[in-house]
Amino acid sequence: MWRIAAIIGCLAIGTAPAFGQSKAAIQKLNDEWTAAFNKGDGAAVAATYAEDAYVLPPGADIVKGRAAIEAFWRGAVGQLGDARLTTVDVLPLSGTAAREIGTVTLKTKAQPPQEIVGKYVVVWCRIGRDWKLATDIWNTNK
Amino acid sequence: MWRIAAIIGCLAIGTAPAFGQSKAAIQKLNDEWTAAFNKGDGAAVAATYAEDAYVLPPGADIVKGRAAIEAFWRGAVGQLGDARLTTVDVLPLSGTAAREIGTVTLKTKAQPPQEIVGKYVVVWCRIGRDWKLATDIWNTNK
To answer: Which residues on A lie below 8 Å from B133 (Cβ)?
Structure first.
């Protein structure tokens, strides 16, 4: 069943799915994401995404696939840091998918550092034993 | 089963879910959304959302619930029109949920009109017999 899920994305197949991820579990995944980001490790950030994930950054085109996502985050970590993600709401969609809404703050590395405040939506999918970001989009509040 | 689905959001419960929405079916829902938007009918736009939906607009805080969503779109249709939504990718998550990625163009009503080009993510949920927007977030490309 894991393999099937990996092939077809995160569509739940078969018997009744259990409930999806909890808010605490997703917050923990986010803390891993920010740890990688704040170390400036674009490859580790990219590794939190599904192979066929989409990232939709403000001010840029759609980024598709882990290689392109890694290139994107490698660039971003040079300019931004001190990220904090806070999970606001989790909507379980099946045993293998959940929608998260959260808020984000980060700081520019240019001097003086400017704080950026935003919000995001992530669709998480279970791929094998791991939960991965399948879709990631955000914008700023101001 | 419809009632249960309506109560708990769009989590698939029970037997194996069928495949989710097709790209063509979601494009049709989008065409209904834009017809309402381009007529300036904020209430009709809001009616395409689930009661407990979230909208995450750039330059603003998170908007939650259909009443707040209606107020938001009533304001927006005064300033923007000529919207066109194009479905790029649909990821079925269960028989009652799907993630859509799309592109959007619209024009400001101020003279001279300016074109805005963006992209979005929508999580669609089946509520009873209808598919509704449960989560809607977008940003601009430039």
So the answer is: none
Q: Which residue of B has its CA nearest to A12?
A: B94
Handedness of CA A5, A10, A16, A21 (dihedral sign): positive
**Interface predicted TM-score of the whole assembly (ipTM), two decimals:** 0.90
Judged by a CB distance cut-off of 8 A, whether residue A106 touches chain B is no
A138/B138 Cβ within 8 A: no
pTM of the model: 0.91
Which H/E stretch holds residue A76? helix A66-79
Interface contact flag, B97 A97, Cβ < 8 Å: yes
pLDDT digits (tens, 9 = 90+) for B2-27: 444 444 567 766 544 444 578 999 99
- Report chain A (142 residues): mean pLDDT per 10 consecutive residues: 51 54 90 97 98 97 98 96 96 92 96 96 94 97 88
